[in-house]
Amino acid sequence: LAWVHSSKSPGWRAHRLKASREYDAVMNRVTVVCFLLACGSSPGDTEVDAGADVGVRDAGGREDAGRNDTGARDTGAGDTGARDTGAPLDAGPALDTAPVVVPNRIVFIHIPHGIAEESWVPRGTGRDFELSEVLAPLEPLRDKLTIVAGLDVAAQDPRLGGTHFWGPPSLLTGNPGPLVDSSRYEGGARSLDLVLGDATSTPIRALQLGVQTSDRPNSEISYLGPGEPVRREPDPERAFDALFAGVEPAGIEEREFLARIEDVVSAPIDLDRNESFPEITRRQFAVLLGALYLQPTHVATLRFSDATSRNVFRWIGEEHTEVWGLLAHRTNDPMNARLLAEMWRWFVEEIARFAQELDGIDAGDGASLLDHTIIVCLSETGVPHQHSSEDIPVFLIGGEATGLATGQFLRAERLHTDLLLTLGQLMGLEITTFGDPSLEASTIFELLR
Questions:
Q1: CB 382 within 8 A of CB 153
Q2: Whole-structure pTM over 0.85, yes or no?
Q3: What is the rounded distance in angstroms from the CA atom of residue 398 to the CA atom of residue 388?
Q4: Neighbour-count burial of 304, counting CB atoms closer than 10 A to its CB (0-12 exposed, 13-18 middle, 19+ buried)
Q5: Nearest to 325 by CA among 63, 134, 70, 111
Q6: Which of 30, 200, 309, 337 could form a disulfide with 331 if both were Cys (CB 3.0 to 4.6 A apart)?
Q7: Cβ neighbours of 148 (radius 10 Å)
Q8: 284: part of which helix (H) or strand (E)?
């Protein structure tokens, strides 16, 4: 019993159970056997089969779903992500049940082009801070919010004159890789989202979604390995089908939840139209919500547009007539800086809405799904018109169960690889460095509870 409960047991790490219900089934069997032994009975004298098959299976009955050539596990047409816990046990007298074990999740959100510190950094420090206009929509989540200023993208190359070239490939890898064709980078390592996905036992290691993204070089943040950018999915309906095709959740609430998401993502939409950007954003967040709740994956990234974004944010107001990429390059003009701040506030509003939706879902242990999730929002650029990779905007939203210290504004003055290392440790990786080893990443202890 002690071995089953120990999170540090090698056996536990090697055979992580995929769902809290499955853990309950195992613990119920162990508890019944221990109860019978304590009463002087033998497990063999009862109808309870302590050796019954409670191994991890997919819904098709296979012991383990294989991986397809994209790196995602092939869940099969019938794999719902829900696991068979076996027949209910008749335990006789009421017994205390083991606590539900809920896995933690993480979502990385990339907003390109950055924003200058004076537009987004709060006033104050520590727990005594006042949110800026840009971050004001996060006020209801203040107790679950951590803002980090002063981080610099670790890998910099002055030869190319701008963070667009090496910033995104460095953002989750900590290593942009070698210069290719004297004009671009293609990532020098496996990105953190895929590394974290490798440590999970979910059908999909990591989910990569986009909003009007392309395969343009230098724009991608997720990498299978050096020179292997991940092709992310910009179509919410296709993403939904890839995750849930053939899935039939066991519970009524789960089925209704999935049906609502399907209704949202299947409505007709022109994915290439500029004015579709807000609706695609909300649909991708709906897909994320379903993925984190029904658990085909625990790790995801969402990327907005590309390093040279052509979107015009007309839905915000009539003053918004300039394309995003050009506007960001002209933020030395105060009016353009104000317009960019309004655009960022719109993104923050959408992220806050997503976080609040997570906070309204019961994770099964009395806490919310947000309590078991870390949302990481960041950009590769600090001051846009300077193409600076210093002082990049970063904020984190997460719950107590993740171990993230929240309710604070932290000025770190460090490289962003320190953040990647710390996030990996929070998610359970036993690592002491991340990214380019020559940079010697170190833990940001202020982010740990």
A1: no
A2: no
A3: 28
A4: buried
A5: 111
A6: 337
A7: 25
A8: helix 277-294
